[in-house]
Amino acid sequence: GAGVSQSPSNKVTEKGKDVELRCDPISGHTALYWYRQSLGQGLEFLIYFQGNSAPDKSGLPSDRFSAERTGGSVSTLTIQRTQQEDSAVYLCASSLAHQTGNTEAFFGQGTRLTVV
Amino acid sequence: AQSVTQLDSQVPVFEEAPVELRCNYSSSVSVYLFWYVQYPNQGLQLLLKYLSGSTLVKSINGFEAEFNKSQTSFHLRKPSVHISDTAEYFCAVSDHVDYKLSFGAGTTVTVRA
Asked: Residue A95's pLDDT is what?
């Protein structure tokens, strides 16, 4: 497609289960970002990829969170042993270059994760 | 590191009235500034951005924002809103080296007839 695609759009999971969130960036975009939007809060940076490498993982809240990117394209964010505080909307964005001042970051519609 | 404060969480406004959304940031270095909009059931879209040059930047749908370095502000304005402007608006900042966007908590604008 023409835009950033995220799946699933909604996910309800039981506490303690693992979940995988997928992001398909715009074709040709080398930079990919994951953000989290919790209720009543702004968007929180999680991790950034340039190609398949993740030079900045500083926003991942705990070691239960991990992400990978393959083929310089699709990225998967994995949350292990989910907790209720993980409930949020997880947003993916991609851009042509890693400098936000030079190019626009395009966002997907997000995955709404609910941990019950 | 940078941080962003959006002073209003909810702004109700009547159609054709003006609106101003306030945004203040803190940073020890020069910054880029952005406003993103999220319409109901849609993803985030870039509304406008300030990179350099003229401190007044405009969007194609009538919004404008002015970068005020001394007040560390980037307030968003529109002289006459439409029902279709109902959305959540996010102010964001990044420095000239870092690639991460730091977002404010968002302002929900509800336009009523």
From this structure: 87
Residue A79 touches chain B, beta carbons under 8 Å = no
Q: Which residues of B touch A48 (CB under 8 A)?
A: 99-100
Q: Is the dihedral of CA A63, B93, B37, A92 positive or negative?
A: negative
> How many helices (H) does chain B have, and how many strands (E)?
0, 12
Q: Do A107 and B44 touch (CB under 8 A)?
A: yes
> Going residue by residue through chain A (116 aa), what tens digit of pLDDT does each one get?
579 999 999 999 999 999 999 999 999 898 899 999 987 677 899 999 989 999 889 899 999 999 999 988 999 999 999 999 999 999 999 988 665 566 678 899 999 999 99
Q: A53, A51, A52, A114: which is closest to A87 by C-alpha?
A: A114
Q: Provide the number of CB pairs (under 8 Å) joining chain A to chain B.
A: 59
For chain B, helix, strand, coil in percent to 5 are 5, 55, 40
**Helix H or strand E segment including A52:** none
